[in-house]
């Protein structure tokens, strides 16, 4: 089993975060990264597994399955990712303060 050096690990985490920008929240039309839904990303090299800790805008979001499928499909497109460990949390709860400036402007929130 080969261990990643720090540069390789950061590169893979950056690829994961970048790829998550292609996952669009179907209701809001903004990607989950700019919405501030993604709390943490990681990569477990021996397993070739991407890890994502994220939240949703509301508990009981009816689109949880759609978003989860989109996350899995997007991350499996990265060379070196065979598995995706997606963890959904509501602690801390999401607020509009999590959104990027881009998302605020796109949604007309001052």
From TrEMBL:
Domain MIP18 family-like: 13-85
Cross-referenced SUPFAM superfamilies: Fe-S cluster assembly (FSCA) domain-like
Superkingdom per UniProt: Bacteria
Matching PANTHER family: FE-S PROTEIN MATURATION AUXILIARY FACTOR YITW
Gene3D superfamilies: Fe-S cluster assembly (FSCA)
Record protein name field: MIP18 family-like domain-containing protein
